[in-house]
Specification:
Layout lengths: L2 H11 L7 E6 L10 H17 L26 E6 L11 E4 L3 E3 L4 H13 L8 E4 L8
Parallel strand pairs: 1-2
Antiparallel strand pairs: 1-3, 3-4, 4-5
Length: 143
């Protein structure tokens, strides 16, 4: 199988192309300016577990990362992708998270706040206004 085909199968397993939301979380930064690393790690662990628990996240294929393994198509069923980033460049009031495609930026994202973001925003479609500090819908009015 070609590299391109392998990547396409991984994307399919992660539901890329069928996602509704993508959560980026500043967690475990190399140079932690906005929050202690343990706070970001705790929120990251909570986010991963909660999205799986709610059936919102697809698991990556078991053969990913092993170039010797034969890929087996495993289409994902999740609708939310999560990505841990080193830094989202705000560097205050963290951990910081952003939810796309809405472009809503959140501050002070503890596990409790992430629970609200997941249930109220990601599932319910309502911004958690007391923790949101900016909105930047990068897709609005663009191709």
């Amino acid at each position: 199988m070609s590299e391109s085909d392998r990547l396409a199968a991984i994307a399919d397993a992660l539901s890329i192309g069928r996602l509704r939301r993508h959560i980026f979380l500043c967690a475990d930064a190399t140079t932690p300016n906005c929050a202690p690393p343990e706070e970001g790690r705790a929120t990251w662990s909570y986010t991963k577990a909660r999205l799986k628990e709610l059936g919102l996240a697809s698991s990556p294929p078991s053969w990913r990362g092993d170039p010797e393994a034969e890929p087996v198509p495993e289409p994902g069923t999740g609708s939310v992708l999560r990505t841990k980033v080193d830094c989202l460049r705000v560097c205050e009031a963290g951990p910081i998270a952003v939810v796309y495609p809405d472009g809503v930026w959140y501050r002070g994202v503890t596990p409790e706040v992430m629970e609200r973001i997941i249930t109220e925003h990601v599932v319910g479609g309502r911004i958690v206004t007391e923790h949101a500090f900016a909105i930047d819908d990068l897709g609005a009015g663009r191709l």
